Every structure is written in C-alpha cells, then in structure tokens.
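Hi team,

As requested, here is the filled-out complex form for the magnesium ion run. I kept the field names the same as last time so the parser does not choke. Let me know if anything looks off before we queue the next batch.

— J.
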Amino acid sequence: MAPIITGLSHLANPLATPEQLATSPSQLDGVPSDLEVSLRYAGARLTQIAGILLRLPQDIVAQAVVIFTRFWVGESGSLLEFGIKDVSAASVYLVAKNSPLPKSPRSIVNVYALLEAKLPSLGELHGEAMDYDPDSHYVSEGTYQASRSLLMKIEAQMLRKFGFQTHVATPYALCINYLQALDVIGRPKGEDVAARSFAYLNTSLLNPQLPYLTNQPSSLATASVYLAARELEVKLPGGEWWEVFDVDREELGFLVVGMLSTEGFILDEQKKWERRKIPMTVAEVEDEIDRRRILNGED
Amino acid sequence: MTGKSRWTDDKDDAVVAAQRKKEREEKKRAKAEKQRRIEEAQLRHQNEARPGSTPNGHEDSDRPAKRRKVTPGADEQHGESQPRELLRFDASGWGPCRHVDNFERLNHIEEGSYGWVSRARETATGEIVALKKLKMDNLNDGFPITAMREIQTLMQASHLHIVELREIVVGTSLNDVFMVMEFLEHDLKTLQEDMSEPFAPSELKTILLQLTSAVAYLHFHWILHRDLKTSNILMNNRGEIKVADFGMARFTGDPPPALTQLVVTLWYRAPELLLGTTTYDSAIDMWSLGCIFAELLTKEPLFQGSRELDQLLKIFDLLGPPTTESWPTFRRLPNARAMKLPPSPSPHLSPQQSLRRKFPILTGSGVSLLASLLSLNPEHRLTAEETLQHEYFRDEPRPKSKSMMPTFPSKAGQERRRRRASPNAPQRGDAPKIDGNMDSGGIFGRREDIEGGAGFQLKMG
Ligand SMILES: Nc1ncnc2c1ncn2[C@@H]1O[C@H](COP(=O)(O)OP(=O)(O)OP(=O)(O)O)[C@@H](O)[C@H]1O
Ligand SMILES: [Mg+2]
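And here is what came back:
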C-alpha cells in the first residue's frame, strides 16, 4: 500500500519555540537537569521498545517518540506531575490511534506492564527487551481499568497541551527520496548507506539536544545521509549538494555534530544507570531526588 | 544507605512535604509569570509578523512606540484581559488550548448529530465566531477518533472555500472540547428553504465553482470529505461559500485503504457506497456534488430515498440501472452480487435525456456536466479538477462575481435555524447490508452467503 499521506504540510513539523525550549516545567519543579535529561532519554527509549513490541512500523514509533519529547518542553509536563511510563504509553496510544494501525488500550496497558516488570535498569533498555512476548503478560482486571482510565486522562491532557496539534512529520521517506535523488540507491553500498542513515535518524530521536523539536525533517534526513555516506565512503556529488534540499552549511554542521554525539551520550547514560532502576513514575522520581539530596548532604 | 530511615517520623515527613509543596508553589508562580511573558512576547512577535492583525485593530504595529514594554509586573493590572492569540495551526509550533470562557455564547445555531454549534463572541476582541462542541461519544477509547479526524483534517486544510478552524478551546471538564471557527451567516440548506426562487443560473455557477475548488483542494491533498450536502455548505453575505463539517473526513491514499461504507448522508450517497464497496475514492464526493448541483436547481434534494435500497431504486429510476457496459465491475460489489435489476423505467432515454427532461431549465453543457457527475460508474465520474474545466462554467450566463451575489438576512445570527426533516448523517456502527431479506420490490434476489452479525438493520416496510 502506498504511504498514507498524513497532511498538507506532511513534510513539515511544528517546531518548539526558543521560549518553549527554555522552559522546563520539571526544572522549575526542582528536578535536576541531568536527571531530566536521563528521564527524557529513558522515556524515549521505552517508547521505541513498546512500539516494537506492539509491532508498529518505524515511522509510527518515531512519531510517538516525538510526541513524547514535545510533552516535556514549554507549559506543563513536569516529571513531578507525570511519570515517563504513563506519558510514553499515552504517546504511543495517541499516535497509533491516528494511524492506520490503532492499538487497543488493552494492548498498550499490557505492553507497558510487561516493560515495567522486565526493565529494572536502563541498561536493559538496550538488550534482550526485544525478545519479550507481549502476549505473555496480563494484568488483573482492576489494574487494567485503572491503567486504562489513566491512559485516557493523560491522552486528554496531552491534546490540550498541544492545542490538538499532534501532527508529526518524520524524515524516513524523505531520506529515501534524497538517496534516490543523489543516485546512491542502486550503487554498490547503496543499501548500506540507507540503513546507516536510518540508524542515525533513529538514534537522533534519543538525542538530548532534541533535534526533532528544533529542525525540520528535511534537514534531519540530509544530515543523516551526509554522515552515512561519509562513513561508508560513498561519494556524493561535489559542491554543496545539501542546498538542493534547502539545508545550509551551518544547519548541516550543527546537526552532524549533534548526531555524532548521540552514541557517546547513550553509552554514558547506560553506565550511569547500569545498576539502578530508572525512575518511571512520579513517586520514583521523588525518591530519586530525595536520595540525591541525602547523598549531597543536604537537609 | 537507603534514606528510608531518615523519614520514619511521620511528623517530620509532613513538615518536609509541606515545605516542598511551598517551594513548588513558589516556583510555579515564577513559572506562570515567565509563561505570561513568553506569551506576551509571542503576541508581540505575531503582531510584528502580521501587520494590522492586532486583535481590535486599534494598535498600529508599524509604530513601535505604542508597543507595550515587557518589564515584569508592568502589566499586572490588565495582564488577565490581555488577549492571547497564539499562532496555533501554522506548521511552526504548538501551544496549550485556551479556555472556552474566553468566549460568550450568543445563540444556539444548530444541533447536528456530532455536536452542537453556537454563535459566540470572543470577549477580548469582540470578534464573532462559531463554536462547535465536539460530541464525546464512546469515551472508552479516549478522545474519539472521529473528532480527532475532524480537527486534524480541518486544521490542515487552508482554503478560501473551506471554513477556517481557528483553534480548539476547552472547558474545565476533560470532555468539553470546542472548535472555534469563522462564523458564516447561512448554510445552503436553511437558506434555500427561505428563498422563494432558486439561485439564478449565474449564481449557481459561482457557488458550484467555489464548492468544486474546495473539493479539488481536498482531493489533491488526499482528503475525502465524505459528507457533502447542502447543510454542510456555509455561505456568507460576501458571496462566498465554504465547506464545513469535517466530521466524516479522512485522509486516504492510493490505492485507497479499506474504509467504512457507512459514510455520506443517504440522499447524497454514491451508488458504489450503497452497494457496499469498502474501497472507494474521491469519486464519492463528486457524486454528492452532482446531487447538490441538482438540488440547487430546484431547491429540492434530488434523490430522497427512505433507506439504502429505496435510495438505489430512486437513482436507477432517474438514470437507468447500470449495465455491464456502463459499469462492468458493478456485479462484484458486495450488495450487487445477487441483485435483480429493475427493468429500465424508460428504456429509450439515456441518463442525459432523462436529466434534460427533469431539468428543462438547464443548458446543454449543464446537463452534460450533471450527467458526468451522476455517472453510476465511479470511474466515469468527473474529477473535481475536470469539473472546474467544464465548458458549463465558460458558457453564458457567466458565473456572477462575488460582489454581485445576493445577500440574505441571517437566521443563524438571530435564532436557531429551522430545519425540515432530512436523514441525519450516517451513524457509526455496523454497516448495513442490502440482501434478499429486504427485498420488497422483487429486484433483489436472495443472497445465500449472508454474514452473521453485521446486517439486518435495514428492514423494509
Ligand atoms: N462556522 C459556522 N458558521 C455558522 N454556522 C455554522 C458553522 N458551522 C456549522 N454551522 C451550522 O451548524 C450546522 C451543523 O454544523 P456541522 O454540520 O458542522 O455539525 P454536525 O454536528 O457535524 O452536523 P450534522 O451531523 O448534522 O451534519 C450547520 O449545518 C450550520 O447550519
Ligand atoms: Mg453537518
């Protein structure tokens, strides 16, 4: 089936304003910024895994991660009001609902219950998680009802926060278009370049600089192609080819540096949370903040 | 070290909790203040971006001296009443919904099947808008997908002849969600009921051209409206019509995904839908357009069937039943497989001739356009783009210019619109099946392979 076009400006994204990016409700609530970064990352990763377990295609999963990420900037959306697990679940539910592959509240609740049970540490967000069988885990009827109504409530709050603007454009299809336009597809190593570009686009969803909130998909696609081709030593046309895709050198440079930093960031996070459970709920975040206070000898 | 022992004392706990709460509240206050300034900055920014678009039009944005300073506290007195007009729907960003209390409801306009609509005034600007409350049925799945589609398609459709959705506002309850739209004085259905004569041919052409341009825009962008009818077409007193009610609309693709055939109000529903297709395309909107065209000629809806089968009969009665020649694939449609066709009511009349006889006032090119829109076979139906190029619009009389279009006193501006009975928009639920059990006129044979469950809402007689 041909892609279902999801909007007139389906290639463009609403972007966060500098003011929104500068406003972190979590930090105003006293969440240390490094903890916020960790939690945003963990939630984004959790969203990716849940999406895979729910057998959602890459593009829809990416949309859910972007919606998740948008939630924490600008007004409302404090980590002391909402847990990353709940917001992640609502993001997946909302995005899937708008897609050709909606998921029932029950599937969502089951998958997140499974993840909560199986993922004590952030380190594990990287390994075997993919092997879990989502149908192996059920919750009691009481838990289900409570989780479901929470899911609906957070969905409603997300919609209000976004002013019902839930459109997300992803760069994947563009990326393929660009590779075709640049005559990379079909050449030796063409497929590898495509795969590598997609890998950059996927990990960038986890990047703490939030490139999906600050740059248009066309720019993200261009930067990923640039990096992948360079890495695999596939020659692209000489000159400033990216200008054809409306990206200037400065933006490209900014994105390239950012994208290259993702891997190191992820390794650092993994190490940081190797032996500890990442706080997925508000109560756990509060405990973590208390723990740090005590470690720092406050109070 | 777990930290837990530190908190064994309940009293201590309470004190600490209270302290934290206080801290958070202070920070919240600071946050709110900051947010207020952000909004102000946005408003300022917006006024710069759109000269002359200040809320009440008094402030001239070309004169920076009049711009308000943003020193903290300086606006405390009128901070509350400051209109907050974020640019919500351009691709550049998002912002939280405002409260519906920013609007005063003036009068109820009309109750539809998916919500109700009222005329309202934005308190801060005095601007008149239409507020449509979204119906929150089936909350089991959270925010209804139909309402979501209505918002999303309308949000992204920006066209002179499509009603403008300005923003979504909310009430205190999570179920109170309203669309804020530009207000138009009339809808074509109510308007026609009060007109003594139908629109003049030149006026009809203007209306039809505007309508078709909107439909062409939607189809070009892969949006199906799926509920085109006169009550969903609004008209203002500046000679403009605008397509409204996107409650059935959705994005599609090529090839089209499987879609529900439970769309389009019965009288405007295309034959392929009546016959149960689930893979239809933009041609269904073009059929509705043909029905609207005919209705505007006489002020009477063209095919006023009482239920699916009757609707089909009325269509075949005027246009003749489909033949293997005119519509080779028609037998493959679910409800057509076992159908016995009525004998052609007037065997010697082509659809064109039949339409000419029914609409003697219509010119030759008009008849040809109408016949092409009302082609039973969706593949033969004109597209919106083709319709725009049709010679009917170039023939005399030429379409009237907008400024010459008639104006009418507004019902919506004063009182609730009166409505004559007409079938409501399709309800969600199981798709009706037309099968032998409903055969009253003897044209439908028995279908042996009737699926359990879904059918039988339609009882004849
Ligand atoms: N922007 C508007 N300005 C003025 N009147 C409007 C506006 N939008 C809708 N109306 C009036 O309200 C009526 C119902 O609106 P709409 O069709 O959007 O709601 P609905 O609940 O989906 O209706 P239905 O299910 O009956 O088609 C319209 O027929 C029209 O008379
Ligand atoms: Mg309507």
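Two things worth flagging: Chain A touches chain B through 53 residues (CB under 8 Å). DSSP finds 13 helices and no strands in chain A.

Thanks,
J.
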